[in-house]
Description:
Elements: H1 4-9, E1 19-23, H2 32-40, E2 44-47, H3 51-67, E3 74-78, H4 90-95, E4 97-100, H5 103-106, H6 112-116, H7 123-133, H8 140-150, H9 162-175, H10 181-193, H11 202-205, H12 209-228, H13 232-237, H14 257-268, H15 280-283, H16 296-314, H17 322-339, H18 359-385, H19 399-409, E5 414-420, H20 425-438, E6 442-450, H21 457-466, H22 483-493, E7 501-507, H23 513-519, E8 526-531, H24 533-539, H25 544-557, H26 560-570, E9 573-578, E10 584-588, E11 600-601, E12 605-608, H27 611-620, E13 625-627, E14 637-640, E15 645-646, E16 653-656, H28 662-665, E17 666-674
Parallel strand pairs: 1-3, 1-4, 2-3, 5-8, 5-9, 7-8, 10-15
Antiparallel strand pairs: 6-17, 9-17, 10-16, 11-12, 12-14, 13-14
Amino acid sequence: MGSWRDQILSEFTPQVARLTLVADPDGLLLEEGVLEGIRERGFELIPFEDHVAFRYAYESKFRSRWDRREETDLVVVLRSPSSDLDALPYDLLQAGRKLSFNLGDLFPNLSYPVVAVLDRADLDVLFDAQLRHAPGPLGDNATKEFVLRHVFEIAPELIKQPSDLLRVLLRRHYRGQRIPHILDERFIQVLRQNGLFEDWPLEAIIPDEQAFFAFLQERWPVFLDSLANSNDDAVYAGAAVYGFKSPGPALLPFDHDDVRVYLDNLFFEGLLQPVLHEQAQTLAQSWAVCGVRISPEEDRLRRVRGLLDFIEKTLPTVDSRYAEWLEFAPRWSELVALTLDSDLPTRDAQASATLPPGYGERLEALKAQIDVTFTEWIVKRYASLINLPPLPPVMLHHIPPFLARNLDNAHDAKVALLLMDGLALDQWVVLRRVLEESDATLRFRDNVVFAWIPTITSVSRQATFAGKPPIYFPTSILTTTKESELWTQFWVGEGLTKHEVGYMKGLGDGSLDGLAELLSRPRLRVVGLVINKVDRIMHGMELGSAGMHNQVRLWARQGFMCDLLRLLHDRGFQVYLTSDHGNIESEGIGEPSEGSVAKEAGERVRVYSDLKLRAQVKERFRGAVEWPPFGLPEDYLALIAPNRAAFVQRGKTRVAHGGISVEELLVPFVEIERQDR
């Protein structure tokens, strides 16, 4: 068969049985492509995890339809071996056929413990390699090396010099590849056995993206000195004064073709930072200008031009995997932040740097292309995201299970989740920049997750704290009053007591005394905090997205976030930050005249309980999207304004949320650490 998915999907023929029970210990059915294939065949899927939650969804969405003699194709997935299927409720066993899938059947000659730790997205390449090379039975180490070579394009025995190693690590960390720890260990072991790179901090820079880029950042000034000064001895003699925190060689081959090809993008995207240099004007004439600070305005314009060119060439398509959109979003947010940056001095009239001709038109055309492509992708693929495994988190409701895993791995750990209501990813770029300037000890591990549709607080924020889709809290979906209760329920279900769980909202201004009192509780292990300031700024904003950026920057400089992070770190908490939704500048297309019939009357979304009423409103706004209730209660029917439009007076401009743009739906999920000097 063509792929490993084909072996699974061949078992799903519509209308063979209205209920299929699947033992899936390795989470194969929850892989993006398999989920999409099952949905395309007309099947709906529910994981069997929490008995009460499952019974609610099963009875409300399917049993009632069967009682009305409606046909359905339902798949119930149990993340356990096939022998555990018999533990399912009796009524399911009586009604359903049984299937079982596991990695051992798909990869019989490879070590199961090694294959099991791979991201399911990597199984495509591994399956193809297995067919092409037909390996005999392999042990653990041989499987590790087979996977390193054929899945991640890493052949340790061929890495002989610094440029070889840098090429491998740049490709890995720039792409954000997730390589399991046991494979990194084997990679390091082989390099050490070969006696190579003895003075390199391999244990840090191979698995850790942040450590690797910090390693490069420290050595970039040395390279610039060597480029500006042909006397290499002088460079090496002065290497000690650079104050390296990481061991390793002082001078790296940044000018090697395999390394240099990455550097422009690393500086454009902010993964590396340009530095001051006393011979900046000379270096500005070289290829290394991307990493040299000339003037704030010239540096900004250079990044804008570079990012715009790169994004136009690498925009994901309707057929892209979700990971490609998660990778795209930070680049787009950097570009948006740069174009809205009002915190730079007026450009000197003598400066030669100018934006390319037609830049404004290119940016607007790019926005329109992104909006159309992303909306089409969301309509096609979004429903498959909901049931993806929570490790790593892909959607907001995956975050609590991810945090719970951290607590399981360290019994004395304490975790704080900061939810910044309404913070868009491009506004996080602004906030992070201020935090970095204000506190050099902070370290950020940036990731991106999908918010819930519609992107409004009562849906998306509540799902974050509940750790489950909104279908499971139908009675409170129009409010956030149950948020604290849902947060506590999740953690009690994970084995904590109520006294170990804390929650507080309304933060963003004023004293932290109340929070300090909460954190002083001796048994507290988990705390959820809602910071409402950005949302309040947004709802009062009359100056568009540029005004949002300026206000977020001014607020960040007042020090509340720095004080909050210092308090949490001092109390021993691991700190994570996210947002329930972003926002965009939108233009009014008129207000629906449905009176008080709408359940929710947002500027970017209207919600109804009746299909006919929604269809009537849609007639007036033909470009609007009638959103299916994916993961939502059946009577929660959203009508979403198209592209960058809003249901407000025609021609009026608003900064709003509720829709499905990249800026609203892709939000930051960041681990914030403190590295003491």
